[in-house]
Batch of 4 targets.
Target 1
Amino acid sequence: MQHRTVHDVMTQEVVTTRPDTPFKEIAALFHRNDVTAVPVVDAQNRPLGMVSEADLIRKQVVMPDEDRDDYGRTLRWKDQARAEAETAGGLMTSPAITAHPGWSIPQAARAMEKHHVKRLPVVDEVGRMIGIVSRRDLLQVFMRHDPAIREEIVHDVLGETLWLPEDSVQVHVHDGVVTLTGRVPRKSLIAVAERLCRSVDGVVSVHQTLDFTEDDTRIDLERPSAHGSPHRHHA
C-alpha cells in the first residue's frame, strides 16, 4: 500500500518574509502574491513564525473610532502588543508549527487540528524550510478516482496484505465510500479489513456486511488446562 506524504502535496515555491519586514510591505506582499499568510524566516531560511491577514487586521481593531473611546480594550494584552507592532517579527504568531516531508496526510491534518492552524511550513532534517502545506493541499487525496481506490483495496489490501481468496469479498466504491460484502475465513479479519480500507488514500468511509466462516474471537471457557482439567466458568 502506497500513501501520499506531505512532500507529495506541499507547495515548494513559498513566499516568505523576514522579521524586520515592515507592516505595509507585508500587506503588499499578500496582495501581489494572492496569499493570506506567509512564513517569517531567519537568515538560514528556518521558519520563526507565521504572519497572516488576521495578524494585520488587529491594527484596525486598535484604531481610534470617533463613535467609541474604548478602542483596543477588547484585545488581550498579548494581542494588543502584536496589534501595535510595526514589523513581521512583532506581528507573527510564533513559534512556527512545522511539518516534515515524510509525514502522512493524516499526521499533518492532526497537527493542524491540534494547534488550530491552517498551514504548516515544511522543514528538512536541519530545520530549513523546503515548502508549505495547507488544508487545501491535504484535501487533494480526496480527488482520487473511485476505480483507483477500488483497485488498491482489491489488490493491495485484500490480496497482497490479507491474502483473502479471490472474489471472496466484493468491493464497491462510490464517491469515496467503500462497501464490502462477502465472506472472510475468520471473524477477526473483518475489523482488520475495515481498518486497512479506511487508511487507503481517498477513502471517505467504509461500510461492510461481511460474513465469516470461523469465529476466532470467542474464548473457549472449557479449553483443557496444562494439567488436563478443563477451565470452566462458575457463576
Note: Strands lie at 37-41, 47-52, 119-123, 129-134, 169-174, 177-186, 205-208, 211-214.
Target 2
Amino acid sequence: MTLKNPIEISQNYYKIADLIVKINYPDTLNLENLLPSFRVFQIDNTNEKPALSILLSTDKAPATADMGILRSDESIAWGDRFCFYEREDSFLTTIVNDQGNEQWCMRSERNFSQSTIYIPSSTEGECSSVIWWMLMMVFGQAALLHDTIMIHASVINCNGQGIAFLGKSGTGKSTHSRLWLKHIPNTDLLNDDNPAIRISPDGIHIYGTPWSGKTHCYKNEKINLKAFVRLQQAPSNLFKWQSGVSSFITVLPSCTAIRWNKDLFATMNSTLEKVVSQVPVGLLQCLPDEAAAQLCYNRIFNKPE
C-alpha cells in the first residue's frame, strides 16, 4: 500500500485595521489567487498575537448531529443557500455550493477569534467569493474585541479626512461618493462598502479593508474619521446635524455585529457610543446631484454656502 504524502500547511499574515489576521491553509490552495484583494494587506511573519486565526481545510467537515439553534436561513449574498446556527460553544455557518450537492461549513469560536472553514470538493467558480465573504464575516465579529467596528459605508478621503456615507442598500452611497470625486477637490475613494473604524490612543481612524463590494478599491490606508453622514433620498437637499441618542441611532444600523452574541453586541454598542461622542453625525436628505455634494462638504468643513 502506498501512503499519501501529508498535506503541508502554510501560514499567511495580514494586517487589517492594525489587527493581525493569520490564515493557515494547505499548500494545495493558491491563497494569493483566491484572495487577490488581500495582497496589499499581507505582512511578513510576526510575533504579534493575531486578533483572528483561520484554518482553511480541504478535509470533510465533521458530522454534527446537533447543529444548534437556527438563527438565520437567508442572506443577501447567498439567499436560501445560507444557514447560521448558534451552539453552546460555537457558531456554525453553512452555504450550499452552487451545484447544490455539497456545502461549505465554517465553525467559529464564540468570540470568533478562531474559525475553521471546511472547503467542499466541488468549489469551482465560487471558492474565492465564499472564502472572501466568510473572512469578512468573522473579521467583523472578532474585531469588536479590539475597539474596532466594521461598517457598511462608502468612504471618501478628503484632504486626509474620512467621511463615511451611510444608508440602506440602493440609497445612493456610492453615487454620492462619485459626486464628491467629480465635484469636490482633493478627494479620493478609500473604500466603497466595508471599511473599519478603530479607536486608538491617537484618535479615531477609518481604514480601508480587503472588502469593498463591487468596487475594486482595496487600500491599506487609515485616515482620521471626520464625520458620518446618513443619506436619505428626497426631492430637495437638506443637511441636519444629529446629537445625543439620535447620533447613535443614525449610525447603529450600518454597524456589523451579530445580535445573538450578546457579549459582542454589547461591546460594539459601547465602542460606538465612544465613537459618536467624538465624531459628528449628519443626516443628508438629498437628490443625486452636485448641489447635494457641495452642501454636505460645506457643512462638514464649515465652508460658507
Note: Helices lie at 31-34, 127-142, 173-183, 245-251, 262-278, 290-300.
Target 3
Amino acid sequence: MRHRSVGQLMTRPVVSVRPATGFKEIVRLLTEHDITAVPVLDAEDRPVGIVSEADLLLGECAREDPSGLLLAPRLTPEQAARSRAATAGELMSRPALCCRPEWTVVEAARRMQHAHLKRLPVVDEAGRLIGIVSRGDLLRVFLRQDRAIREEIRHEVLDRAVGLSPDALGVTVEDGRVTLTGTVDRRSLADVLERLCRSVDGVVDVTVLLDHREDDTVRPTAGR
C-alpha cells in the first residue's frame, strides 16, 4: 500500500530563526506568518531547538500579578532562566526532535504523541532543515476522497495483499468509514482484512460484516 509520507505533507519553505534572534523579532515573525513556533537553526541550518508561543509566554507567567490575587507560579530552575531570556538561543526548548521526509504519517504521529509535540522539523540526511510538519498537516490524510480510499482497498488490500479479486467482497466507504460485506473462506482472514483496511490513509473506522466458510480460529479439542 502507498502511504503518504512526511515529505508530501510538510510545509516549506520554513520560517526559522538563529540563536541570536531577539524576543521581539520572534514575536513579529510568528504574527506576520500566522504560525505558533519557529525552529532555531545553527550556522549549518541544522535545528538546535524550537521557540513556541509557550516559550515566549514564560516571561509573562513569571511576573507577579499586579492585583496581588494570584500566587506566584512554580517554575523549574530551567523555566525560571528561560523566563528572563531575550534571544532564541536562550528561549528555545531543546533538543529539537526531528523527523525525516520518508517517514509515514504513523511514524511522525507517534513521535509527536510520545514527546507531546505539536510539530516536527523535517531534516535531510545531513540533518539540515528542509520542512516542518504539524499535527494539522498529518490530519490532511483524512481529506482523501471516499472513492480513492475504496479503490485502494479493492486493489491494494484485496488484490495485492491477500490475493482476492477486487470484486470478491463488497467495499463501501462513507466519510472515511469502511464497511466490508460478503463471504471469505477463513474466519481469520476477516481479522487480517480489518487490520489492513485500518492502515489505509484516510480511513476513520472499519466495520466488518463478513461471513466465513471455515472457522480456523477455533482450536480442535484434544482427544482423551
Note: The chain has a mean pLDDT of 91.
Target 4
Amino acid sequence: MQHRTVSDLMTTSVVRVRPDTGFKEIVRLLADHDITAVPVVDSDDRPLGVVAETDLLHKQAGQLDPAGLLPALHPQPADRARIEATTAEGLMSSPAVTGRPQWTVVEAAQVMERHRVKRLLVVDEAERVVGVVSRADLLRVFLRGDRAIRDEIAEVVLVRTLGGACSAVAARVVDGHVFLSGTVDRKSLIPLVVRLCHGVDGVVDVEAERLGHRGDDVCGSAAAG
C-alpha cells in the first residue's frame, strides 16, 4: 500500500529565526505569517529549538501586573531565565522534536503524541530543516474520499495483497468507516484483513462482524497444541 508520507503533507516554506532574533521580531513574524511557532536554527539551518506562542506568553505572564492587583509569580530559576530572556535563544524550547520526510502519518503522529507537541520540524539527512508538519496536516488524510478508500481496499488489500483467499470479500465505506462482508478461506485471515484495512490512509474504523470463514484453522491449531 502507498501511504502518504510527511513529505506529502508538510509545509516547505518554513519561517525561521536565528538565536539572536529579538522578542518583538518573533511576535511580528508570527502575526505576519499567521503561524503559532518558529524554529530557531543555526548558521547551517540545523534546528536548535522552537519558540511558540506559549513561550512568549510565559514571559508575559511572568511580568509584574501594572495595576498591582495580581499576586506576583515566583518561578523556579530555570523558568525565571526564560521570563527574563529577550532573544530566541533564551525563549525557545529545546531540543526541537524532529521528523523525516519519508515517515508515514502514523510514525509522525506517534512521535508528536509521545513528546506532546503540536508540530514536527522535518529535517533531511544532514539535519537541515526542510519543512514543518502540524497536527492539522496529518489529519488531512481523513479528507480522503470513501470511493478512493474502497478502491484501495478492493484492489490493493483484497486482491493484490491477499489474493484468492479473500476473493469473496466486499468492502463498503461510509465516512471512513469500513464494513467488510463475505467469506475468507481461513478464520486466521480475518484479523489480518482488518489490520490491513486499518492501515489504509483515511480509514477511521473497520467492522468485520459480517465477515465469515470457510475453514477454522484457529481452533484446529489450538487443539493440535
Note: The chain has two domains: 6-141, 146-224.
